[in-house]
């Protein structure tokens, strides 16, 4: 079977529900309109669904002039692109420069979370470099955790779900791909083949596959209810654990930004090389 792009997802506001357009333009720092907005607390630290699971129940969609956010039982919030002086936001001990979205947006999200927060916009993503260990000096990223895009495979998810089905928390499965919040979902590739990809082309867009994605507690939160469980981390720890982390999906950096991706585009592996393979947790050194 030929591997193809099966779905595209973008998340206008960090940690909220995403959109699934049929096509999207690749920019140097990620998909256009992906993760350019984020919430911060009173100390300027990023607020995410790792600690505020309610954000996963908020829908955010792009408009020509900004974004619109929706949540059950609340009036929609429409926010225009803000202008003004930038302010620093801290996330994972790194600084991101952003512009305040304004009082009405702050009030809407503060009431939703029952905690003082502010909505911020990354007006200039050229200011935030990726981790130099895995990127080049001119690589940039939006307000995503670390890299411009995340790619996941439906075959790898099927393999993970098969493992979960035989484990102690089988009732929590199967996992939905939304748990992993990828930008690009690939159909037709062998399970875990993405571990060894180094460079790929999807349609006319070329990417470096710079590293796997180590997964956090956010994957244990049901995207429909915001309830927290144990999976998929328990099963990933048994089958996909190395370097003291568990792994699912792969981080991408675009090499020829400006190209439009469309669902159905063919994926071609341009370069591959065996990476360190996952090992069972029982084989780890304690």
UniProtKB/TrEMBL annotation:
InterPro entries: MoCF_Sase_C, MOCOS_middle, Pyrv_Knase-like_insert_dom_sf. This is MOSC domain-containing protein. Residues 123-270 form the MOSC domain. Transmembrane segments: none annotated. Signal peptide: none annotated.
